[in-house]
Structure formats: C-alpha cells, structure tokens
Design goal:
binds zinc ion; alpha+beta; binds S-(difluoromethyl)homocysteine
C-alpha cells in the first residue's frame, strides 16, 4: 500500500561548510527517501539552513557583513555541495524566511493563549557600553576556583572547572573590555513538565524511537523536566517576539519550525499549497526526522511538546544515527580529517563516499567509522571489482562478441533468478528499516552471484562451439547486474543513471520491481558501454587530508606534560584480582547537585544493569555515551554515594575537563566479556 512520508534531515548551521560528518546524515536521508519512492511511496524531503543565534550574529560581524549577507553566502555553498553529492531536497529553505516567521508566530500565539508560557527573571552579566547581555564566551576573568587569569565565562582552561559567567572574579567584557554589571531581565519559559505525561505516551508508541533512544528519553522523563527558556535579549539575530519588543525567540525554538516552513515552500512550488496543512495539521502521512545523537533532547522533548501544545502533528519517528569518526577517532582539523565536502570533491568522485558511507550506515546509534584503508579497499573490491566489473565484462562481451543482442534465460537459471529476487525483497525491507548497510550488501550479493556465474560459465570458452549458450549466460549475468543496480540505486543514483542506458534501458530505475523483471532478453539489445568507475588509491585520500590540513589554523604549541611516575610493581596474582569487564552503556543522565558526575546504567551481561556514577560530565554529553562498550572494574565494592549506590567503576584517561577519554571496545564485543 503506497503511503506518504515527510522526511527531514537536521538543519545545518549557516555558519560553516558542509563536512563529511554532516554527509553521513544527508546521505542517509537522501538514500532512504529515494528507496521509499522506489517502493512506490510518496516521500517529501525537506531541509533548511539554521540561520539564527548568537554565534552567527557574531561571526557575521567579524566578517564585516550583516547576518543576512553572511547566511546567504553559506546557503549558496550548502546548496551547491548538496547538489554535487546528489542530495536532492524537495525544498532547501532557510529558518530566516517569512514562512518560518509566520509559523513561529502561530506556535507562539497558541502557547501564550493556551496558558503554556511562564515568565521569570534571570540575572546575567550585561555590558553597559555595548548595551548587551554577555553569553559565556563574551566574558573573561579570573577563575573562581584556581585563580588563573583570563578565563572564559564557562570553563577554566587550567583547572577545567565549569561555572557561570557571573562567578568569575574581576569579569570583563570581551567586546569592550569594560566591567560588566549584573542585570535582571524577564524571560519566557515553557514549563515542560506540563507535557510529561504526553511525552511519556509519545515516547512509548511503537517504532517512534529506536530502543536505545527510548531508554535514554525514559531516563530523562523519570525526573521533572526543567522549564525551557525560549527568549533571548536584543541584540540577537532571530525573530522578535511579537508582543515583547527587544526580546527574540531562542534559535532552538525557531529551528525545528523550519521543518514546517520548508514543507510550506515545497507545497507552494509544487503547486499544492494545502499540502503543508495536510502534513502538519491533518496527518497526511508519516513525519520522520533523521538526526544525530547530539540533538536527541531537542527532538524528543522540546519539539514534540511544542507541536503538541500548538495543536500540530507530532513526529511519527525520530531516527538517530551515530557520529562519524575517521580511523577510529573524532574528526580533527589538525589531523586533516575534518574534511569539507568541497575539499573531498576536488579529489574524488562523490560516488565513492556515497557508497562507503551508506554501506556503513545502519539503524543503530553506533558511531560510523571511515577507516581510510578500509575505504580504499572496499571501494575497489566491492564497488569496482564486483559490481562495476560484472557490468563491464558482461557488457563488453555482449557488445564486442555477440553484436550487443541479448539472448534468453534458460530454464535452469530459475534458482539464480529466485535468489536475486529474494535479495531484492530483503534489500527493500532493509532500506525501509534504515539498514542501508544491509541493503547495499544485498545488492552486492547479487553482483557476486553474477560474477561467479560469469567466471564458472567461462563464456569466452563457450563462444566458439556454442555462441547462443554464451549469449544466454551473459544475458543472465546482465539481468543480475541490472537487479544489483536497481537495488543499489537509492544509495548510488548516479551509477544507476550511468549504467541504465548501457543496458539499453531508459533514464534510470524508478521502482524496485524493475530489478525483478529479468526482461533484458532478445530481441532487446544493450546500449554502448563505457567506463563505469575507476579504482582509487590511498594517495587520493591522503591528498584530501593534506588539503584539509592546509585549511586549518596552525595548532597551538602543546606544552610538555610530565608523565606520572609508575606505581610500585605488583605480581600477576595481585593484578588478576581486579575483574575487568566489558560493559555497554544503556543510559546516561546528569545528576542533580553534582556538576562532575553522570549516572550510567551499564549492562555487564548480568540479570540487571548496574548503576555506576562516573566523573566524566565535563567531557561527555550524556547522549554521546549510549551504546558505547566501556571498560568496567566490576568487582569493586559498591560505594554508597550521596546520589545512590555506585556498583563499579568505568575506566578513563586524560587530565580532566573536556580532555577525558573512556576506554572503549568495538560494538562486536559482548557485554560481560572479561578483559585479560
Ligand atoms: O545541531 C545542529 O547543527 C542544528 N543546526 C540542528 C537543527 S535541527 C532542527 F531542529 F532545526
Ligand atoms: Zn581554574
């Protein structure tokens, strides 16, 4: 049954270039949407630039531009980069649009008139010369803890203590160097706890959230949600609050509303202006948000609560993906792995990255690693030597030896055809369940079968005695290749477009069913064949890394850190008394009254998960921990803390503050495994 879907990807800030970390999400969303359409569904794919907020306002000023000019430059760049990666939105809008302003006003009016807003005073540092309140990074002063001078208003670089700007000793404004004063301002809040019951129901609805995300949200919902401040004082780049001159909506209020505004822009250009109301007021189809795990809180609490309060449709599904790492570590500017889409494109065909990233993207929150050697190896072995090779060798054989005319599918080919049809069915379901990796694998399995038949059947030998037998064999191989191309088309649309005419077909695949047609038979003929795709080498990727390094500002000189002296020697028996286990983090949450701690629920393969308090809050946002396999000292005597019992210890390294790293194991390792 054809259904309707509205699919969104997170809105990129109009404050920086699209990089390979972003691409994980946009490629996932684009591939998913293409697959929905090939299954016969209606799928509308919208996105926009996220344009508001303090960082953009400040960077625009630094660049000598108005915020509007500044975001316009990024909009142009983003649209160009997406296009070059064949990421095709039905609408790519901006949160600074008139459509968005209207929707924000409507939502605000509904919140206000429904009695869903409260007012409260906040005391913050204010620069009397610049006439503005100062966010954390606009205040410097002496650390209240260790006395180090010249520290920002959020964290001390020296002792890593986090604090409020107003806690600094001798604070001064970064903008004017004047001494800020404390000033009170009235702000608007959404009392989120009013929606706690609604959110619980919403969270529990089947297939709304991945199980690991649901656990996480449930943990947040166990405690009263804090009121959410939705206003900011002028000057601010954003929408002014209608009946509050000088107050603006906080960027995270208007950003997701951009999903609706972008739907409206699509609806108007498609000539069906009512479609926006159909999706967002009447329930025309499923609303699916694809996001990274760093913005779960916004999408599972603030956003559905806001929509619910405003009487609009709430999302049907939030699909969360893991973050991109390169060779197992976070992307880094100095390592040259914080690669912009445009830098990549100067060196390699986007198809390689589409292939690799989709082949690594599944339905879990596990981080996605771009291992450089693996990238080169898999592109060459799977895309070039398997799929493209099947097409090239079979097409070139048919065209050069057999006049390009297809033969027949003999009766004994039935099992192979059934096998391919089964892979197509499986692949289609895999796409629908966001298991893109599985779907790509299903396509490659069909190609592997084709290559094996070609190799075993050796048409170049058969040709002399029985050219029709050779023709029929190659015909089977090309029908299998076509099935594989159809299956992989959502991930690699440009490959499919290139290859379809070579097979004698028009334009591009539009339905998965076509892959199961097996109708490339006489008297049809193949088209002219051409190079499909070339092998790559490590050198090309290294050039991308070098080009990226050249863009990065020089790294500050690292101060030598003395290595701590070793503890006294112990024997193996003493060591083996420590029972080290692999534990999987099921949930993580902050602890009221403890600025350094996170409360973790860790699965050690036992009947029930353990509660462990870990002093890693300064380094890890709780949501980044879900699903990680960590190293746990499992036979430590449980410790009663003020906040509860801590039943073990997770092990980590680093000097403190943001620089703490948990010891981790890959996802394949089973929780509870002993570490020797
Ligand atoms: O985290 C980000 O990059 C935000 N710009 C995402 C916004 S998504 C949506 F809610 F607007
Ligand atoms: Zn300090």
């Amino acid at each position: 049954m054809p259904e309707s879907y509205l699919v969104t990807a997170g809105l990129p800030y109009a404050n920086g270039s699209i990089h390979i970390g972003h691409l994980v999400e946009y490629l996932m969303a684009d591939t998913y949407v293409r697959a929905l359409r090939m299954s016969g569904h209606e799928a509308v794919f919208v996105c926009a630039d996220d344009t508001h907020g303090t960082p953009i306002e400040i960077n625009a000023r630094k660049a000598g531009k108005t915020p509007q000019e500044f975001v316009a430059l990024y909009a142009e760049e983003h649209i160009r980069d997406f296009h070059r990666f064949s990421i095709e939105f039905d609408s790519f809008s901006s949160t600074n649009s008139e459509e968005n302003r209207r929707w924000v006003h409507e939502i605000y009016a509904r919140l206000r008139d429904g009695g869903h807003l409260i007012e409260r005073d906040l005391e913050q540092l204010y620069d009397t010369e610049a006439k503005r309140f100062l966010p954390d990074r606009f205040v410097k002063g002496t650390c209240p803890k260790c006395g180090t001078e010249d520290q920002y208003g959020d964290v001390c670089e020296s002792c890593k203590t986090t604090y409020e700007p107003k806690d600094l000793i001798n604070p001064r404004s970064v903008l004017t160097d004047s001494t800020p004063v404390l000033k009170t301002s009235t702000h608007l809040f959404v009392p989120l706890k009013t929606y706690q019951d609604f959110l619980r129901d919403w969270t529990h609805t089947e297939s709304r959230l991945q199980p690991e995300v649901r656990k996480f949200v449930e943990a947040w919902l166990q405690e009263d949600l804090k009121d959410w401040c939705i206003s900011r004082d002028a000057p601010y780049f954003g929408f002014e609050i209608p009946d509050r001159p000088g107050k603006f909506f906080y960027v995270w209020l208007d950003a997701p509303v951009g999903y609706i505004a972008s739907t409206e822009q699509w609806a108007k250009t498609a000539g069906t202006p009512k479609a926006v109301d159909q999706f967002w007021r009447e329930g025309r189809g499923k609303i699916i948000h694809i996001i990274g795990k760093d913005i779960i809180y916004f999408h599972t609490l603030f956003w559905p609560a806001t929509l619910h309060a405003a009487g609009l449709r709430v999302p049907d599904r939030i699909q969360v993906h893991g973050m991109l790492t390169v060779d197992g570590v976070k992307m880094s500017k100095t390592r040259g792995t914080f690669i912009n889409a445009s830098t990549y494109l100067e060196h390699l065909d986007p198809m390689y990255l589409r292939f690799f990233l989709t082949s690594k993207t599944g339905a879990s929150l596990t981080d996605i690693d771009l291992g450089v050697d693996e990238f080169v190896h898999r592109v060459n072995a799977e895309l070039v030597n398997n799929l493209a090779n099947l097409l090239s060798r079979s097409l070139s054989f048919l065209n050069t030896k057999l006049d390009g005319i297809y033969g027949h599918l003999e009766a004994d080919t039935e099992p192979y055809i059934l096998q391919a049809k089964e892979a197509l069915r499986l692949g289609e379901a895999q796409y629908a369940g966001f298991d893109l990796s599985g779907a790509v694998r299903s396509a490659l399995d069909i190609a592997t079968l084709g290559n094996k038949l070609f190799q075993d059947g050796a048409p170049w030998k058969v040709l002399k005695e029985d050219p029709e037998k050779a023709r029929n064999l190659v015909t089977l191989c090309l029908n299998l290749a076509r099935a594989a191309v159809v299956m992989i088309a959502p991930a690699l649309p440009t490959l499919a477009e290139k290859v379809y005419p070579m097979l004698g077909l028009s334009l591009r695949p539009t339905r998965f069913e076509e892959g199961a047609a097996f109708d490339l038979v006489a008297p049809r003929r193949a088209g002219a064949h051409d190079r499909i795709i070339d092998r790559i080498t490590r050198k090309e990727f290294d050039q991308i890394v070098e080009a990226t390094k050249a863009l990065a500002p020089p790294a500050p000189e690292a101060s030598p850190s003395p290595v701590e002296p070793l503890a006294p020697e112990i024997d193996i028996e003493t060591f083996s008394k420590v029972d080290l286990r692999v534990g999987r983090v099921l949930s993580a949450s902050t602890v009221e009254g403890a600025t350094k701690l996170l409360r973790l629920e860790v699965d050690l393969g036992e009947d029930k998960p353990r509660q462990i308090f870990a002093g890693i809050r300064s380094a890890y946002p709780p949501e980044a921990l879900i699903g990680k396999n960590v190293l746990v000292a499992a036979n430590l005597k449980p410790r009663q803390m003020k906040f509860g019992l801590s039943e073990g210890m997770v092990l980590a390294a680093g000097p403190g503050g943001k620089d703490i790293w948990l010891a981790e194991f890959p996802e394949e390792v089973t929780p509870g495994n002993r570490v020797h």
